[in-house]
Design goal:
This protein is α/β, with parallel strands linked by helices and 370 residues long. The protein has two domains: 153 residues, 3-Layer(aba) Sandwich (D-Maltodextrin-Binding Protein, domain 2), CATH 3.40.190.170; 153 residues, Bacterial extracellular solute-binding protein, family 7 (D-Maltodextrin-Binding Protein, domain 2, 3-Layer(aba) Sandwich). The chain has 15 helices and eleven strands. It has a six-stranded mixed β-sheet with strand order 7-6-8-5-9-11, sandwiched between helices. The chain has a five-stranded mixed β-sheet with strand order 2-1-3-10-4, sandwiched between helices. α2 links the parallel β1 and β2. It is globular.
Length: 370
């Protein structure tokens, strides 16, 4: 009896060992099969890129950036990049953007050069060319030629502020919005006007206006309370910020491009850390978007004019004579000479050459349109 029990125990023990081996083998196979999948899943985890913009959605540029460019980046990188976007200065305010992107507070963001006259010295030259082409393809041609052929522009971003330029967009032409009636440049005389550039403040003074500095975020209130009589800015900016609610008299010049490029940049260290195929996808998305910007750019002006007239605004287009008065060539040349002198003092040794090269590029851009 003991022998029988012993033999049964040995048989059961053998079966248990074989079962254990089978289970262990199955576990090993499953691990070998699952591990590559898990590794692949980990490798495909999206690269999250923060994008910061100090303007709110709802404008020509902001809607285009959000709905077209950022989406195109995700598309052209096959979903391997995901954009986390912040608007209305939620992450970085306008004055913080240049340093914030350079320091990596955000990987990508929007830079408006007019806010940095001492830090982006070369870019201030754009405002000294008040007249230019009106079509986006010719405006963008000017921006790209300047950036590619005049080294100082790229050096300021890459060497001083650790950023690579990606997308360039622009605003609609410059426009004057006033709480008082305005149908010509002569109507600016004796009234208090605000704009963002010191050079445009000089131009306001040249046509008899009283130039006033007011923070962008305070302009609506300043117009409402009479602190200022009017604002000169890009036409879509007037509409986006609802200045036309309190300053419903509009004078717009289609030949008065807004001049300063809208720069959308990426932190250079972060850019250099990205895989090459991701970089290529982002650059492809940028080329597609920059070309596509022409369609909303050309349509937006008519849309705003119609919307403003519907709410009772009086919209007047500048005559050629008014454009010439605003440009004011004799005084403009003196301002250009002043820029050269100041830029050299800031360390831009070839400022005179830059000015002459800019004159040639702007003129060629105008001729392309004709």
């Amino acid at each position: 009896m003991d022998n029988i029990l012993m033999r049964r125990f040995e048989v059961m023990k053998g079966k248990s060992s074989r079962l254990s081996m089978i289970l262990i083998g199955a576990l090993l196979v499953s691990v070998l099969m699952v591990s590559p999948f898990m590794l692949a899943f980990a490798a495909e985890k999206p690269i999250v890129i923060k994008y910061s913009d100090h303007d709110p959605p709802g404008g020509l540029r902001t809607d285009f950036v959000k709905e077209v460019w950022l989406n195109e980046i995700e598309k052209q990188t096959n979903g391997r990049v995901k954009i986390r976007d912040y608007w209305g200065g939620a992450l970085l305010t306008a004055p913080e953007a240049l340093k914030g992107i350079g320091d990596g507070v955000t990987q990508m963001g929007f830079i408006y050069p007019d806010f940095f006259p001492k830090r982006l010295v070369s870019f201030q030259i754009f405002k000294l060319f008040p007249r230019a082409p009106s079509k986006w393809e010719n405006i963008s041609w000017i921006y790209r030629i300047v950036y590619d052929q005049i080294p100082a522009f790229k050096a300021e971003f890459e060497e001083k502020w650790n950023q690579k330029l990606l997308l360039v967009t622009s605003a609609l032409p410059g426009a004057f919005c006033s709480s008082k009636p305005i149908t010509s440049i002569d109507d600016l005389k004796g009234n208090k006007w605000r704009c963002s550039s010191r050079w445009q403040l000089e131009m306001l003074k040249n046509v008899g206006a009283i130039p006033v500095s007011v923070p962008w975020a305070d302009c609506y209130m300043a117009l409402q309370t009479g602190t200022i009589d009017g604002v000169f800015t890009n036409y879509d900016g007037i509409n986006m910020m609802r200045f036309d609610e309190v300053a419903p008299n509009i004078l717009i010049g289609e030949q008065l491009w807004w001049a300063s490029p809208f720069m959308h940049t990426v932190n250079l260290d972060f850019w250099n850390s990205l895989p090459e195929d991701i970089q290529e996808g982002i650059l492809k998305a940028t080329r597609i978007a920059e070309e596509a910007f022409g369609k909303p750019f050309s349509a937006k002006l008519d849309q705003i004019v119609a919307a403003e007239k519907k709410i009772g605004c009086k919209v007047t287009f500048m005559s050629d004579e008014d454009v010439e008065k605003w440009e004011n060539k004799p005084k403009l040349e003196k301002l250009q000479e002043k820029w050269v002198k100041e830029a050299k003092a800031e360390g831009l040794e070839n400022a005179a050459w830059i000015m002459e090269r800019m004159k040639m590029i702007i003129q060629e851009g105008i001729e392309r349109e004709q």
